[in-house]
Write a structure and sequence with these properties.
The protein is an alpha/beta fold. Helix content is 36%, strand content 19%. The chain has a 5-stranded mixed sheet with strand order 4-3-1-6-7, with helices on both faces. Strands 8-10-9 form a 3-stranded antiparallel sheet. A two-stranded antiparallel sheet has the order 2-5. Helix 5 links the parallel strand 6 and strand 7. It is globular and about 55 Å long. 29% of the residues are buried.
Length: 239
Amino acid sequence: MELKKKLCLLSCGAAKIWDRMPETGAVPARLAYTGAYSVLCREYAEVFFNEDWLILSDKHGFLRPDDIVPENYDVSFRRPSAELVSDEVLREQAERLELDAYEEIVMLAGGHYEERIRAVLPSAAISAPMRGLRIGERMQFLRTAIADHCKESPKPIFPRVRSKYASLQIYLSGRSQDRIRLSIPEIEQLLGFPLPKSARIHAAWWANTQTHSHASAWMEPGWKVERAELGAFTEFSRQ
């Protein structure tokens, strides 16, 4: 088996989209965890690992970025619970996902997640670049790494002028597919705030024009709005 280079493994995080938006239904794993640390870890993974990253959920086990999380939950490896994912399930998932095809697993998760992975994958080469750091130091590590990468990249991942829509640009910059459909709640979760009313009732808000500053969020990384179903979803395609 030819080994892939590296896999990044994130923890799921306690804060979830349903805490702020309880009416939200099932969402992709990449959008489910909304705490500041979880969002930074996701951005780091998308910048440095493209799609070679997973989230380790205390309940669901290994989640790929686009795997669906059906609903809210409150389960932690730190607390006994019948809902915790078992080692047996984790081993089955690891085999199905071919985690042994990676020469290194880079963990952004805390120590109790690392202990669980070492028990499940005893032969895996595991590194933890933030091991021993406190939460504030971890967040600074992630911010600095992302910012330094953007300075060196010939095609910046962040907008040349940071705007409140920057997180949408970061998300689109890290995608490898040619077409993406995002629901309005998914876009709002990425942004961390509600879209303006005009985005829900006026198609012109989604026009592919640089005269709209928010349109730079998708046009700068090479995307265009292909279809906007007002109040429901938006389809982006590569220009």
